[in-house]
Amino acid sequence: MRNTKSNSLVVVVMLLLSSFLYGQNPDLEFTSSSRGTGNGPVLNSGAFTFLKNTDNPSGTTYAAYTPALTTTFTISNPQYTGTNTTFGTSPRSPLVFGVSLGSNASIISNFIGTPLDSFFTASGATVGTGILASTATASNRGVRIYCATNPLRENAVPTNATPYMGDITITFNRSVNNPILHISGSGGGSGTQAFFGEFELTSINGSASPPASGTLTKLSGTTPLYVSGNYIGNSSNGNYTQVPGGGAADGSGSIQVNGTGITSLTFKYYLKGAPFDGAAQWAASSTGVATGEALTLSVSTLESDLRVTQSASTLTPDYCNNMSFTVNAANNGASNSPNTVVNAAIPSGYNYVSHTASAGTYDSSTGVWTLGTLNDASTATLTITVKAKSTGTYAFSSSISGGNSDPVTANNSGTITPVPITFIDSDGDGVTDTCDLDDDNDGLLDTVECGTIFTNGDLGTGNGTGATIWNLNNNTTLYPGWDISTTGSLSGGLQAYTNANGGADGGRIEIYNDGGHLL
Fold first, then answer.
1. Which ranges carry the DUF11 domain (predicted)?
2. Which domains does the chain show, CATH number per domain?
């Protein structure tokens, strides 16, 4: 039997780092709350919900995480489906979830085989840390896999063979990057026959093409646990007895699946036989399901919901005064985001002046701001100073990306589009009137030529001795909505002019001197 186991365009991208312990990187793991109670035998585990380990790798403070990330384990293509040595699932199968020594057991399980915590590596943690498998505070869980060996004796499978028993597929409800598999307790036996559960990765996301070599990487674990190409095996051929801390033949550890955008992983499951002598048998009986290999399979991963927003201090910039854009780049979690980059290129309608960055490095020629790691629940700030030009593109866009999978992509980019004031150049010198100190080019500064040009409200009072007041036509393209109640020539002193339309915005009057120059 087996043992159990403001004056220029300013772009602001803000950095407000939350207080984190050095080296802390929250990840998503399975705990006792990841699945409700339920026993096997089943071929579908039901959904396991990831919880956020907020103080990974040193602690076990778990919190619900939204939007929820789930994983479902399924068994398909079972082999050796005879009625004498299989479970009454549909289809019948010797390979199931939720069985211990042939009896119904919880589908969600602690780590079988009492392995050491140091055999495992959580996502985002240093090697040998972050997963609590056997200590007094052991909190991590996985799916219990059981494969009866009785049908191998019934079918006279050689005891030194490695028969294929069925497929196990891990399906995520959305794509993940670089998930880590935690295998605990590969290795069991019956009498003088040892056997070891092994896995071959055959498909990612349902692809018919085999995964590329190097897709699997062993991060940590016992010596017998190995990775060769797409195969996860146990090199032991000796004593299968499992003891606290993991026996010499125990196959326990963490294997990373290298890849992005992963929604499913399919493995062929094998049982490697290792007889001690010529009398060894796969099971004590050729009927029943009481002898078999049991192990735990768990998963951890990282996610970062990155968000970028922007606002403008004005949507109507001119060509001689400043404005600012504020862009917030934030990490809503769950995990610290490595390789974080914000693209914030300066549009052609602005001239670059300068920039400051509270973190990372900004290249004004490419618009790439390299932030590096942006921690969970933090934000960051970049300020770019520019000046508006009379021509070009004025829409400012920014986008953010990082090394983790992002569960919400709708908030990864944004655009805001200022519309500069109409470019008016009365004297044709290439300088807009709003910036030109002598916009009629008569050698007199505008400030000494005339008392007031009235815009955007009641006209008020103006002085312009010897000047002629011109009432612009009502509803003109340039200055719509004005109807001056009095027009004529000033002979000196002060004269009041009011907007007969009650102060409608958008118009002005023009005052000319006796020589016909616009004052």
1. 305-417
2. 26-300 (no CATH), 307-416 (2.60.40.1510), 422-519 (no CATH)
